[in-house]
Every structure is written in structure tokens, then in C-alpha cells.
Design a protein that fits this description.
With 181 residues, this protein is an all-alpha fold. It has one domain (3-133, 138-150, 152-157, 166-173). It contains 3 helices and no strands.
């Protein structure tokens, strides 16, 4: 709206430039050159330049620039919201990572404990097998001793039964029998 008040002054200025005779005379002399550089056309070119500039400035100032600013504000709000969402997601991800790290640490501790238990179990089995071998040897030795003691006891029982039989026979018959060992 501000620029609209300058349009009448610009049109008067442009009309004044068109009315200048010196440019028209020089324009006829220089017809061989480029038309946009012909001085005869300068006032019209300046007038349309001013009108075009005023219209473009008005359109840019009143239509385009407010829309661009509005778009920038919307974009800033959107970026701020997305940054807030990203920050919260980042914090959640950090919390989840910390939770996962805790779970992994717990799993590692359990794995180490299981490994220790496995090693202890293997050592116990090894110790048990060694003890089993020792016990087996002791049982075999004990069986041999028991067998020897049984044989000795049977032999003693035989001797004693023979002696008892001799003693009984001697008391009954007064005979004495000698038995060879």
C-alpha cells in the first residue's frame, strides 16, 4: 500500500523522460545499434521498469514474504516438536540400553557361576572317580582278607570239631584218635 502512493509520481517522471527531444534526435542517429540501447526508448523503458519494480515489490512485500515467513514459523514449530520427540526417544533408548546392559551383566554373572558350577561338578566327578578306585581297591583287599579269614576260620572250625569229636570219643570209649593236619 505504501508503494501505491509513489506510482503517480513515477508516472509523471516517466512522462517527462519521454518528452525530452534530445534523446529522440540521438536515437535516429544511432539506429544501427541495439534497440534497447537506443536513447529514443529510454523514457518508456524507465517507466515500465518503475511500474514493474513497484508491482513486483508490492507482490513480494504483501503476498510472498508473509507466506514465506508463515512457512518458516510452521517449520520452526515442527522442527522443535520433532526435536522434543527425538530427545524423548533418545532418552528411552538410553534407558533401554542401560536395562540391556544390566541384563547382559546379570547373564554374564550367571554364566560365570554356571561355569564355576560346571568346573566344580567336573572336579567332584573326578574326585569321586578317584575315591571310587580307592574304595574298589580297598573292597578287593577286604574281600581277600575276609576270604582268608573265612578259610582260616573254617580250618579252625574243622580242627576244633575234630578235637571235640576226639574228646567226646575219648570220654566215651577211652580211645584217642590222632588226626593228621
Amino acid at each position: 500500500m505504501r508503494l501505491l502512493r509513489y506510482i503517480p509520481a513515477l508516472s509523471v517522471l516517466a512522462a517527462g523522460f519521454m518528452a525530452m527531444p534530445s534523446w529522440a534526435e540521438e536515437a535516429e542517429k544511432a539506429k544501427a545499434g541495439l534497440p534497447q540501447l537506443d536513447a529514443q526508448y529510454f523514457p518508456g523503458q524507465i517507466f515500465w521498469l518503475a511500474v514493474t519494480f513497484a508491482l513486483l515489490y508490492t507482490v513480494m512485500a504483501w503476498i510472498v514474504l508473509p507466506r514465506v515467513q508463515q512457512t518458516q514459523k510452521k517449520r520452526q514449530v515442527l522442527v522443535a516438536e520433532e526435536l522434543a520427540i527425538a530427545k524423548s526417544a533418545n532418552e528411552e533408548a538410553k534407558k533401554m540400553a542401560a536395562g540391556c546392559d544390566a541384563i547382559l551383566a546379570d547373564a554374564r554373572c550367571k554364566a560365570i557361576a554356571l561355569e564355576d558350577i560346571s568346573k566344580t561338578r567336573q572336579e567332584a566327578l573326578k574326585h569321586q572317580s578317584e575315591q571310587q578306585k580307592v574304595l574298589t581297591q580297598q573292597i578287593l583287599k577286604a574281600e581277600v582278607r575276609i576270604g582268608n579269614a573265612r578259610d582260616a576260620a573254617l580250618l579252625n572250625v574243622q580242627k576244633m570239631s575234630v578235637e571235640i569229636a576226639n574228646d567226646i570219643l575219648e570220654k566215651i570209649t577211652t580211645l584217642k584218635i590222632r588226626v593228621k593236619a
